[in-house]
Design brief:
Distance between the termini: 30 Å
Largest sheet: 6 strands, mixed
Strand content: 15-25%
Number of helices: 12
Bound molecules: manganese (II) ion
Number of strands: 11
Order of helices and strands: HEHEEHEEHHHHHEEHHEEHEEH
Structural class: alpha/beta
């Protein structure tokens, strides 16, 4: 039996399924996780969607977002636990213990690295989003995709493809998107909710951070920093600068962009690359992870030290990259 069919069979007989997103959840893991939750409930099962870090403001429009739990009762054991994009169980954050107590652990992922912690694995590195894998899983469960599920799945696709702009925008992703639109979801509506509800303070923070922009390695690497002073001056929350690295990558000649947020003894590094430069390898060397073109890490240390380390790693990856290799997030 192929892995996805086995997972469908396991989920159909599950008495209570726990669906766990990774820490710092994005639109793909939340959209895919919520979609699966709706599908299992439509079959009469119990399903709880959990995220240790809750739901970011920009994704609270997702159907079911208000019911996402951040904590579980101590000692509670789900029948089946499904992790969504957790390369290791530590990516579940404080929900790890509950996942470990499940009778069966299922991992669904499309990242380059997946540790062998699950009993059943749906691992498709060619998927633009795990939403693609979950869409197929839902069909195999025999559930027809209604508007609620379609909105969740289309959000997964929209966010992981950068609204269908990244190199992972395949014909398969677009065909699924077309199908989801026919079922009542709207790209325009999702783009508006996710990308066009910024606060003025978020844009001010971006403005402060952009003034720190420097180019390195013959203009191939762009770096900008976010300091506590910038956060205080703008009144923005750190996560409101999440688009900074992607913006830096748009500079002509830049192949790797990084933003470094000084979170007081801990530096949050966000990396975006193109032209085959492996952002994930830089992130992994810093103790983080991600996709080839979109990755990140949280590194203990000072801004200066972490920047120096990241720039050294960047130089190595620039040399290793094939000049014309297409990249995908
Ligand atoms: Mn994803």
């Amino acid at each position: 039996m192929d892995p996805r069919a086995a997972i469908a069979q396991t989920l159909r007989s599950s008495t209570h399924t726990l669906i766990v997103c990774h820490v710092g959840p994005d639109g793909d893991c939340l959209g895919a996780g919520l979609a699966l939750g709706w599908a299992l409930r439509s079959l009469g099962g119990l399903a709880t969607v959990a995220s240790a870090d809750g739901v970011p403001t920009s994704l609270r429009f997702l159907p079911g977002a208000a019911d996402v739990v951040t904590d579980l009762p101590p000692g509670w054991a789900p029948d089946v636990a499904v992790t969504v994009e957790c390369s290791g169980l530590d990516r579940a954050g404080r929900l790890e213990a509950a996942v470990r107590r499940a009778r069966v652990i299922v991992a669904i992922d499309h990242h380059a690295d997946l540790q062998p912690y699950a009993h059943l694995v749906d691992w498709d590195r060619s998927a633009a989003a795990v939403g693609e894998q979950v869409a197929d899983l839902i069909l195999r469960l025999g559930v027809s995709i209604d508007r609620t599920i379609a909105v969740c799945l289309l959000t997964a696709l929209v966010t992981d493809t950068g609204a269908f702009r990244y190199a992972n925008t395949t014909p398969r992703a677009l065909r699924l998107a077309a199908d989801l639109i026919e079922r009542g979801a709207s790209v325009h509506g999702i783009v508006r909710e996710v990308y066009e509800q910024q606060s003025a303070s978020a844009l001010r923070l971006l403005g402060h951070a952009l003034t720190s922009l420097t180019l390195h390695h013959d203009g191939a690497v762009a770096v900008a920093v976010i300091t506590p002073g910038m956060l205080a001056a703008s009144g923005a929350r750190p996560e409101e600068a999440s688009g900074l690295a992607a913006l830096l990558r748009t500079v002509t000649g830049v192949r790797l962009a990084m933003s470094l947020e000084d979170a007081g003894g801990m530096i949050r590094v966000s990396l975006r690359s193109r032209d085959g430069v492996r952002a994930d390898r830089v992130a992994r060397a810093l103790g983080g992870g991600g996709h080839p073109a979109a990755a990140g890490a949280e590194v203990p240390g000072t801004l200066e030290d972490v920047m120096r380390r990241a720039l050294d790693l960047a130089a190595h990856e620039l040399r290793a990259a094939m000049p014309d290799e297409p990249s995908s997030p």
